[in-house]
């Protein structure tokens, strides 16, 4: 109802039209003085709004709420000092701000086009870039009406609430519902356009729910409760839906026709020589007039042609009401092509005396139309679900669901390779939208499900599992709200990455535990980044970076990026100002849910060694790549066996330089064990055998952390040339059992055998040395040795040798002790030295922490040669001092442990164990911005792991379920619950942390209202 009101103002009569109660707010007289207003007193406004917010301020399902411009409401709060709104509090100051003036909600509405305010239905479409708190606030209808009556303005923007969320159920305002314009069907079977109605429905609703809603006279309105009953209601429905298809009349082209071909932006007249179905890329072949007369006239291949002389009726608009198919009834409105743009129009047909008014023509499945789904046999004689992309003459172009466009092909309409949808392939209700081939089974939980390996795709599965455990992103995608923000003009992907990822995440959060085949996502990421299109092993971090880039571009709220040639660079004196300026410049070009949650800022400073100039800049950062500091020393575990058989073995740990050799290792062991280093033989034991006897110059760095190292004291080694001998041969002796089933067991030994000029030694001397070395290994009640000493002969056989016989020593010389019985052997007693406590969890390597990695990341360094810095002050290139610091911390912190190292000469994987906290990672130490230190604590929620070496290995993930908060091992299709303590592993590669106190659902809610 519209009221008219007038009042006398100085200088004339002011008439305000179309406002229920108006004012002459802040109008000035000829002297510039403010006038009195018609609005109530500030005290009255505070009391009235306070009462309304107290009574109506709790958001509940099924309510209507209004949107009001945030700047206006904040100005009103500063003007009145009201504390009714928790989202914004007034400044505690005596002086109040100016009056807010008229409400202007047009700032967050679509300004023009079909999505703008519709004169017929009063529908307002909110700008996809609008964001809660930044552009608008939600207020109860009663509050809106009261404020609008006092201050005027508008328009009124009203939205319903609904219950949403798979991870956390909550009530939210449905900002971007699908508006359906419904026309009733008259007795002649035609649409009655005289009295249409408009109804909003959530994007996750389906046309089946719309039918159930209309059958129940609008009582369900497509709510969540109606969803479970929609299918049952549909079977009893007395309502049928028809959609208005608007098409252009066309005629198929024939060879020889005179056409115009569009080539490089120009039109060329010529003769049509070939049709798209004859070209593997689907192009027309045209012989242009300009090419005629040439010795070998080329044929121009184009995708766009038009007739020189159009046929009668060609290009005319055809409008036809078509029945909604069973498949379309099941698809969510947010995905349905019929509801993609603007106000979607449907005709509602109700049964008349139990009969339908319109005749429903059931077409044959071979009456192909674009968008039809069929089963199609591929070139490997396997039937796959396919969709028809084009129909031309007697052929159709098919696209295999879930596969790249490069496999599209033209097939004859009558070909036996085509079959009715669902007749040769599996059939599901959402057949056309399911590219993932889910199979249901056991072992998982909602949200923690297996991903099928498509062939060396473990790296992809590991990354996807970690992303699926990310709080804000998963909630955002599961609810399907990302669809309203997809940028169809996005670079390279055109929205496909976000679309396929959203489908995949939603399938992973289905109610039943199951295994999902991510074929659709694999095809999309392969088209976006061709290096992922094949089936070679790749890097999970590279896939993650590519996925974040694709999602950001697809969901970027900035459609036209402004160019800013002036980077924000400071001198270290005003970091806060420069950082904020750099961040604002960045956000004006890059603004998405990915940037909101995952990206932060790195502070980078360089000091010029020539003039001392300090240059500081702030760069965005999505994945924090921290080096694993090179440890100059390593702790090596060694077991020493003394020459005196009465002394027990000793296991100890010593610290040695990685650049050193075995001689250094022996010196360190000798110092602890109180022996002579020159009397030690060092070897590696593997599976109860001496695997390798080390030379003195063998590199320490080549000894792996899990290698078992023994040292044997041999007194005769000290001189290397004992009396009456020319040298010492180091000989390994393994323990075996005799008989048919030979078994290698126990701990082998090494001995030093002196030899003469001919490299010979008496067999009896060898046996005596072995018996002396093994005295500690047989029972005391055994006076005779319980084993035989066998020597390998020239015929590669092991035999007992006469004690007086001379044995020729060579590099292949080998001896073994064959025991009469395994029971006669007893393992030598071994003492453990206190130095073993230093090994900790690293089992042979020095314990590194994530703190040390962050220290290394923020450590000042000199720029390397070839990477010089050009000083903006002195204009000289030099190797300046560079230092990095954290500045703006993200809600989601992704840390990459840089395990893989590549140079021109070599490549390597660092296998060092890095101890990382599961909870309470405090980044305040490495954060330069003071305001960020207060919220710098993070908790781990996922880990991407890599086992094995370079060029292969295997990836898997550990992830914390968002619902039950349990940890799971997610290894391709395998899903197992795991202990929290087992999450720490030396195979950790990518660490995913969430800021403590960060509300993922709240972040998702904020992202929903953005573009």
Helix content: 10-25%
Count every helix, treating DSSP H or I runs of 4 or more residues as helices. 17
Question: What proportion of the residues form beta strands (DSSP E)?
Answer: 25-35%
- What structural class should be given to the helix and strand makeup? alpha+beta
Biggest sheet overview = 8 strands, mixed
Kindly summarize this structure in a few lines:
By secondary structure, the chain is of the alpha+beta class. Helices cover 18% and strands 31% of the residues.
Keyphrases for this structure?
disordered N terminus; eight-stranded mixed β-sheet; 1011 residues; six-stranded mixed β-sheet; alpha+beta
Task: Describe the model.
This protein is an alpha+beta fold and 1011 residues long. Helix content is 18%, strand content 31%. It has 17 helices and 58 strands. The protein is globular and about 120 Å long. It starts with a strand and ends with a helix. Residues 1-37, 113-117, 221-228, 428-443, 841-845 and 1007-1011 have low confidence and may be disordered.
Topology diagram in text:
Blueprint: E1 4-9, E2 12-17, H1 42-56, E3 64-69, H2 70-80, E4 103-104, E5 136-140, H3 141-151, E6 153-154, E7 157-164, E8 170-173, E9 178-185, E10 191-201, H4 207-215, H5 224-235, E11 239-248, E12 258-263, E13 266-274, E14 284-288, E15 300-302, E16 305-307, E17 317-323, H6 326-330, E18 344-350, E19 373-377, E20 383-392, E21 395-400, E22 409-412, E23 418-419, E24 439-440, E25 450-451, H7 458-468, H8 471-478, H9 496-508, E26 514-516, H10 519-528, H11 540-555, E27 569-570, H12 575-587, H13 593-598, E28 600-607, E29 614-621, E30 624-627, E31 633-641, E32 649-657, H14 662-673, E33 680-686, E34 689-693, E35 708-713, E36 727-737, E37 743-755, E38 760-762, H15 763-774, E39 787-792, E40 798-799, E41 806-808, E42 815-819, E43 830-832, E44 848-849, H16 850-857, E45 861-862, E46 869-870, E47 877-878, E48 881-888, E49 892-898, E50 900-902, E51 907-909, E52 914-915, E53 921-922, E54 937-947, E55 954-960, E56 967-971, E57 974-977, E58 988-995, H17 1000-1008
Parallel strand pairs: 4-6, 9-18, 25-26, 30-49, 31-35, 32-43, 36-42, 44-52
Antiparallel strand pairs: 1-2, 3-5, 3-7, 7-8, 9-10, 11-17, 11-18, 12-13, 12-16, 13-14, 14-15, 19-20, 19-23, 20-21, 21-22, 24-26, 27-29, 28-29, 28-48, 31-32, 33-34, 33-35, 36-37, 38-41, 39-40, 39-42, 45-48, 46-47, 49-58, 50-51, 53-54, 54-55, 54-58, 55-56, 56-57
Helix pairs in contact: 1-3, 4-5, 7-11, 8-17, 9-10, 9-11
């Amino acid at each position: 109802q519209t009221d008219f009101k007038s009042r006398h103002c100085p200088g004339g009569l002011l008439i305000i039209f179309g406002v229920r109660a108006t004012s002459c707010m802040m109008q000035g007289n000829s002297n510039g003085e403010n006038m009195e207003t018609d609005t109530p007193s500030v005290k009255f406004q505070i009391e009235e709004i306070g009462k309304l917010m107290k009574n109506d301020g709790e958001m509940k399902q099924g309510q209507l709420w209004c949107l009001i411009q945030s700047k206006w409401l904040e100005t009103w709060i500063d003007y009145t000092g009201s504390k009714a709104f928790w989202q914004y509090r007034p400044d505690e100051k005596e002086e109040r701000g100016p009056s807010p003036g008229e409400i202007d909600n047009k700032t967050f509405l679509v300004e023009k086009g079909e999505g703008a305010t519709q004169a017929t239905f009063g529908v307002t479409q909110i700008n996809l870039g609008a964001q809660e708190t930044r552009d608008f606030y939600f207020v109860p209808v009663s509050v809106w009406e009261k404020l609008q009556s006092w201050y005027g303005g508008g328009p009124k923007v009203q939205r319903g609430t609904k219950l949403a969320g798979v991870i956390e159920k909550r009530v939210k305002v449905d900002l971007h519902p699908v508006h359906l314009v419904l026309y009733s069907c008259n007795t002649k079977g035609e649409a009655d356009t005289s009295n249409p109605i408009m109804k909003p429905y959530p994007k996750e609703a389906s046309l089946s729910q719309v039918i159930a809603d209309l059958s129940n006279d609008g009582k369900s309105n497509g709510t969540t409760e109606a969803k479970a009953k929609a299918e049952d209601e549909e079977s009893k429905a007395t309502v049928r839906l028809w959609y208005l298809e608007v098409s252009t009349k066309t005629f198929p082209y024939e060879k020889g026709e005179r056409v115009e071909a569009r080539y490089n932006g120009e039109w060329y007249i010529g003769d049509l020589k070939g049709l798209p179905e004859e070209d593997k890329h689907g192009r027309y072949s045209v012989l242009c007039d300009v090419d005629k007369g040439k010795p070998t006239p080329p044929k121009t291949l184009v995708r766009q042609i038009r007739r020189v002389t159009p046929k009668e009726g060609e290009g005319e608009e055809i409008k036809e009401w078509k029945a909604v198919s069973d498949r379309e009834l099941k698809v969510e409105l947010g995905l349905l092509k019929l509801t993609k743009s603007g106000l979607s129009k449907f005709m509602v047909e109700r049964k008349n005396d139990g009969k339908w008014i319109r005749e429903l023509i059931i077409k044959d499945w071979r009456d192909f139309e674009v968008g039809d789904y069929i089963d199609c046999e591929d070139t490997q004689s396997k039937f796959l679900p396919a969709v028809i992309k084009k129909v031309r003459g007697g052929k159709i172009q098919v696209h295999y669901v879930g596969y790249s466009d490069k496999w599209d092909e033209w097939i004859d309409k009558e070909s036996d390779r085509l079959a009715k949808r669902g007749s040769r392939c599996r059939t599901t209700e959402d057949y056309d939208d399911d590219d993932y081939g889910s199979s249901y089974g056991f072992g998982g939980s909602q949200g923690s499900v297996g991903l099928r390996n498509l062939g060396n795709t473990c790296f992809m599965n590991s990354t996807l599992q970690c992303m699926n455990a990310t709080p804000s992103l998963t909630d955002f995608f599961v609810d399907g709200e990302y669809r309203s923000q997809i940028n169809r003009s996005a670079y390279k992907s055109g929205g496909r990455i976000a679309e396929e990822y959203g489908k995949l995440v939603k399938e992973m959060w289905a109610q039943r535990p199951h295994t999902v085949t991510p074929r659709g996502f694999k095809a999309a990421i392969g088209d976006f980044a061709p290096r992922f299109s094949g089936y070679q092993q790749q890097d999970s971090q590279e896939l993650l970076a590519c996925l974040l880039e694709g999602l950001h571009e697809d969901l970027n709220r900035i459609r036209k990026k402004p160019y800013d040639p002036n980077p924000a660079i400071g001198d270290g004196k005003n970091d806060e100002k420069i950082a904020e300026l750099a961040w604002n410049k960045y956000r004006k070009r890059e603004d998405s849910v990915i940037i909101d949650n995952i990206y932060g800022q790195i502070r980078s400073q360089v000091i010029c060694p020539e003039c001392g100039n300090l240059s500081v800049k702030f760069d965005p950062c999505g994945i924090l790549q921290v080096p694993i500091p090179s440890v100059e020393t390593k702790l090596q575990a060694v077991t020493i066996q003394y020459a005196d058989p009465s002394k027990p073995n000793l296991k100890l740990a010593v610290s040695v330089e990685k650049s050193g050799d075995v001689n250094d290792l022996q010196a360190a062991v000798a110092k602890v064990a109180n022996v002579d280093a020159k009397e030690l033989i060092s070897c590696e034991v593997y599976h109860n055998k001496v695997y390798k006897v080390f030379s003195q110059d063998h590199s320490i760095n080549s000894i792996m952390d899990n290698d078992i190292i023994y040292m044997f004291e041999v007194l005769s080694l000290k001189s290397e040339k004992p009396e009456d001998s020319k040298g010492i041969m180091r000989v390994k002796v393994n323990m075996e059992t005799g008989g048919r089933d030979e078994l290698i067991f126990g701990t082998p030994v090494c001995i030093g055998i002196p030899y003469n000029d001919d490299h010979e030694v008496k067999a009896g001397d060898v046996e005596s040395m072995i018996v002396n070395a093994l005295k500690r290994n047989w029972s005391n009640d055994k006076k005779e040795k319980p084993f035989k000493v066998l020597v390998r002969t020239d015929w590669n056989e092991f035999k007992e040798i006469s004690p007086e016989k001379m044995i020729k020593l060579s590099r292949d010389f080998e001896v073994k002790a064959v025991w009469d019985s395994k029971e006669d052997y007893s393992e030598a007693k071994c003492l453990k030295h206190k130095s073993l406590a230093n090994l900790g969890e690293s089992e042979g390597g020095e314990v590194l922490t994530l703190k040390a990695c962050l220290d290394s990341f923020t450590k000042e360094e000199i720029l390397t040669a070839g990477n010089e810095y050009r000083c903006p002050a002195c204009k000289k290139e030099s190797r300046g001092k560079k230092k990095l610091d954290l500045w703006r911390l993200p809600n989601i912190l992704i840390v990459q442990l840089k395990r893989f190292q590549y140079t021109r000469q070599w490549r390597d994987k660092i296998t060092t164990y890095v101890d990382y906290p599961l909870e309470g990672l405090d980044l305040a130490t490495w954060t330069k911005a003071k305001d960020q230190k207060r919220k710098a604590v993070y908790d781990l929620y996922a880990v991407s792991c890599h086992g094995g070496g370079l060029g292969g290995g295997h990836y898997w993930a550990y992830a914390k379920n968002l619902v039950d908060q349990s940890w799971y091992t997610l290894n391709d299709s395998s899903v197992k619950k795991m202990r929290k303590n087992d999450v720490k592993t030396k195979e950790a590669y990518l660490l995913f942390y969430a800021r403590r106190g960060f509300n993922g659902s709240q972040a998702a809610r904020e992202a929903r209202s953005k573009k």
